[in-house]
Amino acid sequence: MKIVSDRDPRFQDAFWKELMRLMGVKVAMTTPYNPRSDGQAEHTNRVVEDMLRSFVDDNPEDWDLYATNVEFAINDSRSDVTGFTPFELCYGVSPMSQLDMFLEAAQSASGRRKGGVGTAHEWASRFSSQLRDAMSRLKLAQQRQRDLFDQRHGQREYVRSGRPCLDRG
């Protein structure tokens, strides 16, 4: 597992370094002051904050009571980029609601749902297809973001001279 941190000091002290080492987690630091590298994390943090705020307008101290619901909602939300939910990409399926469980039980009782090896092969095939599709969509989205960044910032011309100059202003 790998965590990419935006140079948060908490990931740089001895306790966290040792804990991550013991857990087999690699911690990589983003380039300082580079919004391209931590933009997704910042966006997700804003979404979480906004969702929690909507639950706890009257009692801000109760935010922790809603954190698991917010996490579930985010992980069960379809991504515009990948076309899948985080649950689907991590586990191959979305979690079942009570209605889903009822419908599956009804189908099983009526004999319309088969079990066994055929179902396992179908699941594995669908899961592999979802992952391939998500990866290709991610690559397209990254390319679009790269193109937008390049359009806004343009290409810089560098002239070779005897002395380099730094702009400190």
UniProtKB/TrEMBL annotation:
- Chain intervals for the UniProt region annotation (Disordered): 149-169
Which GO terms fall under molecular function for this chain's record?
Answer: nucleic acid binding
Question: What Gene3D superfamilies does the record point to?
Answer: Ribonuclease H-like superfamily/Ribonuclease H (3.30.420.10)
GO annotation (BP), single: DNA integration
Domain Integrase catalytic residues, every copy: 1-94
Alphabetized PANTHER family for the sequence: INTEGRASE CATALYTIC DOMAIN-CONTAINING PROTEIN, PROTEIN CBG26694
Query: What name is this protein filed under?
Result: Integrase catalytic domain-containing protein
Source organism phylogeny:
Eukaryota, Viridiplantae, Chlorophyta, Pyramimonadophyceae, Pyramimonadales
